[in-house]
Design goal:
Layout lengths: L1 E7 L4 H10 L6 E8 L6 H6 L4 E3 L8 H12 L6 E4 L8 H7 L3 E5 L11 H8 L3 E8 L9 E8 L6 H24 L5 H11 L2
Parallel strand pairs: 1-2, 1-4, 2-3, 4-5
Antiparallel strand pairs: 5-6, 6-7
Helix pairs in contact: 1-6, 3-4
The structure holds 5-O-phosphono-beta-D-ribofuranosylamine.
């Protein structure tokens, strides 16, 4: 049974989808802890499932590195096999990525490498594209630049706002995330091999 830590910052709708999936008989992974860099509304989903939460407020630390060290110390208590960033709106310090990767994945509401960064939905709208997407990647040292594990196109419709487009993307994001976690748990996706292959492709 793959043990999973999920890190969030906001509503945690993607976390909720993962919690619901993990509650299904036969799902090969279970969430053991939910962490956040701020008092996230999504903690309510963890509490509803009786899953421990870890709050490490970014603003209480002098540096990103000190925050990352404390987050790692608290999450590693559960020795998760996989750490999922699902709505964590914070870049992890390099030392933390190095400690957890490649068993560290992230969901992003765009068709990477298109529109990386904190405003992927807003940027796609501003670019006037007719389609964007959702992606699940292995986290590397960059911003949404790691190897892609799954992605799918999502249409941009006339009159879309950032909210309506994001709400159309999120269900796709959730389905991809659940499928990726299941594939990792069942050994059909080997994160070390994916990361090594990506590293060998670097110029
Ligand atoms: C998701 O689209 C995630 O990819 C992005 O922010 C959104 C978080 O939504 N970083 P939620 O907190 O899971 O509802």
């Amino acid at each position: 049974m793959l043990t999973v830590a999920v890190l969030i910052s906001g509503a945690g709708s993607n976390l909720r989808a993962l919690l619901d999936a993990a509650a299904e008989p036969g799902f090969p992974a279970r969430i053991v802890v939910v962490g956040a860099d701020r008092q996230a509304d999504g903690f309510a989903h963890a509490e509803a499932f009786g899953i421990p939460t870890v709050l490490v407020p970014f603003r209480e630390f002098e540096t990103r590195e000190e925050w990352g060290d404390e987050l790692r110390r608290q999450i590693d208590v559960w020795t998760p096999d996989l750490v999922v960033l699902s709505g964590l709106m914070r870049l992890l310090p390099t030392a933390l990525v190095d400690a957890w990767a490649p068993a560290l994945i992230n969901t992003h509401p765009a068709y990477l490498p298109e529109f990386p960064g904190a405003h992927g939905v807003r940027d796609a709208l501003a670019a006037g594209v007719t389609e964007t997407g959702a992606s699940v990647i292995v986290v590397d040292g960059g911003v949404d630049s790691g190897p892609i594990l799954a992605q799918e196109r999502v249409p941009v419709l006339p009159g879309d706002t950032e909210h309506t487009l994001h709400e159309r993307i999120k269900p796709v994001e959730r389905r991809l995330l659940i499928d990726v976690v299941r594939a990792i748990a069942e050994g059909r996706t080997d994160l070390a091999a994916v990361a090594a292959s990506a590293a060998s492709d670097l110029p």
